[in-house]
Amino acid sequence: MKEVSLAVLLALAFPQDDGKGSYEGVENVPSMILSVDVTCILKTWRIVGVFVCPTPAGGVNTCLIIENAWPVGIVEAVRRPMTSHMFEASVFFKPFEEAPRFGETSSHTNGAGDGTKLQFAEAHAFEFVPDLPIPIDLPLARPRGELFRLSYLSELDGFNWRKGFADLLTHPEDALKRAALPSCSTVPRPDDCAWSWGSWFPRIGFTVHPSEVMASHLTALRAGRVGSDPMGRIVISRYPYEPRSGHYVQMVHPTRRGCVSIGWPIVRRIEQNALSLEGAYLFIHFGIFQQCNGCFPARLAEPRAPTGAP
Questions:
Q1: How confident is the model at residue 113, as a pLDDT?
Q2: Tens digit of pLDDT for each residue in 291-309?
Q3: Residue 305 domain-assigned?
Q4: Average pLDDT over the chain, rounded to an integer
Q5: Is residue 66 within a helix (H) or strand (E), and if so which, with residue range?
Q6: What is the average per-residue pLDDT within 48-72?
Q7: How far, CA to CA in Å, does 136 sit from each of 39, 42, 95, 162?
Q8: In a domain, 113, yes or no
Q9: Between 35 and 108, where is the model more confident?
Q10: DSSP H helical segments within 164-282, as ranges?
Q11: Which domain holds residue 221?
């Protein structure tokens, strides 16, 4: 009995490295559905106006414009290439394991004495538009989409994910805007910035940020931005709903949290006890939608300043 106990203690104290991250495959689609922060939908629900539209029969329809958040994607940032928190991802990744890739490392380096760090991670985006695990007795703006589908795998887009040349060629106006305007941390903006978290452009895996946790939020959401606007990039399938400032994101790994408005400037509570020793972070992305039954289906709301403390 003592020998068994000692062996167990030694195994716990000195775990063997089997080449697999402890986060790999720990989540699946059912567990992610159960992880959805339903309060994110409830706290964003509101009536924003009244709309009138003609009916096919020649009459008039009047409806309330409903606005609320809804889960539309799973995004993740990982240092180790071709790994995922999602158990189902191994099925999607397998056909691409032997595909040529540009770059194999995902490292972090210290800045030049300024307290910042150059963060890098691979990132993946999955379309994820589930039904809610519990009913809500309210009219809701509910977008359409697949339950689970791979959209973007940065390892296949390695050159652009590291260099960003494609974004410079296909979105020159964004490059000019970034060069002309102050940094997002100095002057937060809803269009070209994830508010104060950093710039959406270029959509690459490198982020200069003093916090690995917040850099991973931005990096993972950038993967969704690539998938939603794939011009010049290698994308598996289109990510239907672009991540936007003021919409929402929820951390699921390394620790489960409630949703937070993208760009929320007071990050201490977001960062607290959320550092991953393996550099692996998993999130649910919520878009904000507006819908008017009988006049128009759920449509993605414009970017905005973040609201509501986490």
A1: 41
A2: 999 999 999 999 999 997 6
A3: no
A4: 89
A5: strand 60-78
A6: 96
A7: 11, 9, 39, 43
A8: no
A9: 35
A10: 165-170, 172-180, 212-228, 268-271
A11: 23-105+122-158+213-300
Residue 78 near residue 27 (C-beta atoms within 8 A): no
Dist. CA 46–CA 139, nearest whole Å: 10
- Per the CB < 8 A criterion, the answer to whether 280 and 254 are in contact is yes
Decide: 69 and 41 in contact? Cβ < 8 Å: yes
Q: How many domains does the chain have?
A: 1
Separation of alpha carbons 150 and 171, rounded Å: 24
Q: What are phi and psi of 158, to 5 degrees?
A: -60, -40
CB-CB neighbours of 231 under 10 Å: 11
- Residue corresponding to tokens 């950038």: 222
Handedness of CA 200, 258, 73, 100 (dihedral sign): positive
Q: In 3-state terms, what secondary structure has residue 235?
A: coil
Render pLDDT for 228-255 as a digit per residue (tens, 0 to 9). 999 999 999 999 999 999 999 999 999 9
Cα–Cα distance, 299 to 6 (Å, whole number): 59
- Sequence length of the chain is 310
State the residue for tokens 């060629």. 169
Strands, sheet with 109-110, edge to edge from the N-terminal-most edge strand: 109-110, 117-120, 206-208
Dihedral (CA of 255, 260, 262, 266) sign: negative
**Domain-embedded: residue 274:** yes
Whether the CB-CB separation of 191 and 40 falls below 8 Å is answered with no
Q: In degrees rounded to 5, what are phi and psi of residue 159?
A: -65, -50
The larger pLDDT score, comparing residue 41 to residue 11, is at: 41
